[in-house]
Amino acid sequence: MITLSNVELRRGTKVLLEDAELVVHPGQHIGIIGGNGTGKSSLFKLLLGEIAPDAGDLFIPANWRIAHMVQELANSEHSAVDYVLDGDPEVRAIEKAIAQATLHEDNDRLAVEYEKLDAANGFDARYRAEQLLHGLGFTQSEVNRPVNSFSGGWRIRLNLAQALMSPSDLMLLDEPTNHLDLDATLWLEQWLKSYSGTLLIISHDRDFIDNVVERIVHIEHQKTNAYKGNYSTFERVRAERLALQQASYEKQQKRRKEVEGFIARFRAKASKAKQAQSRVKELQRMEDIAPAHVDSPFYFNFPVPKKAHSALVNISQADLGYGDKKILNQVNFDLQPGTRIGLLGPNGAGKSTLIGSLTGDLDLLDGKRVYGDNIKVGYFAQHQLEVLDLQASAFLHIQRISPKSTEQEIRNFLGGFDFHGDKALEPIKDFSGGEKARVALAIIVWHKPNLLLLDEPTNHLDLEMRQALTLALQGYEGALVVISHDRHLLRNTVDEFYLVANGEVDEFNGDLNDYQQWLKNYNRMPDASANPGFNEAENEGSLVKESLSSADKKRLRQQSAEARQKLSPLTKKSANLETDIETLNKQLADVEVLLADAEIYSDSRKDQLKEQLNIQATVKKSIAEKEDLWFDIQQEIERLS
Question: With a threshold of 0.85, does the pTM exceed it?
Fold first, then answer.
């Protein structure tokens, strides 16, 4: 058991922890959360023995083996698999002893060492190391590549694999999903669920924490406050507690009204019934936990973009890739104003290639690309951070774009990204990765784009900034395409998913749970990692098509025509219902504006109050009935499709 008793921890003159108390029982999985600079990583250093408490007592069982994820970039000429194997020093020591005994032909020593290797599960160590690498996105052809041949993000993955390889009673993971895509995140989630030791994890991926931990420790006001349950439970409990604090009431109500507005606007926007149901449920939950984020330092909105009346980008019959390497075949992708798409697909299948082709950064290998007249693109990718002027401040970056804007306008804007006072004027060369990402996002927002292309925008962002970005994207009125491993962001900001896999781009008929199942089936294919263009289900389908007789083909065409006839009135009815729901939501908003006026509760206006309350109840009932009907129609459309 780990115990912290009256612990005080300082970094220079700053007090991170004061009289902190914490008890961690063996086998518990705990999420450590808190704002930037509150001491989360310092707590890990304390547990690792790298720093000592300034006061108080820390106890960790002396025989506990501790594994942790190194944050520095791996630097080695060894192969990736050997680097991961180094995570098990006992097996490595035995292997070295076996090599020495073999060299000296010491058979007695050799027998002893082989017994040790068996006891340490060393005979299958290389296989286990390769499985970890595959789970984190490395292909079989990459496991023997030198560590130094990989880019920074992939070297961080190697650090994670090495930590997972280490036999441990306590595992400390600091932002393990930062450089992972969605597929690797899902794999890691399952691996950690089955980890039998004690796990302490710092993460800003709320879905990931929700699915891995059973307890939350929130570092706030120099204290370690423990909550039973996962992150969603913590949010709800904290929201209830903060809602009781009168001083925050007005600000909470403002934020609640904004989230209610998002619900009203996006309730019937999703193009698939399953996705729409997931969206409504998620937004209603966001409404309930809005007060938990009332003290967030981040608050910004995307300005209303310039209107576009035709397709923003159209790619037709296009082959996409790099140089002579074709990755995607015969792509047809049409982005209309207001479209909100999430891109799904295995690592390396071409999601970033599609984004790069939409921006124009990549030339088409074949086909056509046409941009609309009024298009204004906002593009975020990790390499965008590298092109920032490190000697310039956040303020200067914005001022260069709009030299006529006043100092106060720019300062007010940057304040929403938590760049206040002197921080807005400091050169960004010493900024953290998260701070640079916020500068890049601020620049994009300032440009007022009507097409947003976001490639992993949440990397390095903390939970509060991710929440602020999610809310801002919900209110964004332009077209949106997102690649992200943050499932909470995807569920709350996009209306439909496209699957990039097997060299193709197709609409994905399902939600994120369906994608997780698709991914499990995909990863069970024998050559999935070596051949990302292979899809067993589609391959079987193509064989069936080839064997169809002329009569079968004719029958299928007839069935397809009948389905289209049935679809037409349903689609029309669905569109009419969406219009009705939007009208009713506007009516409801008008009523609630009247009900928010304190004067209506006076004795002289009792009749008006009664009338408005009746209208409110009637409109809410109508909205619920029409939404239920809309969901039923959407499910029927899916079935016929």
Answer: no
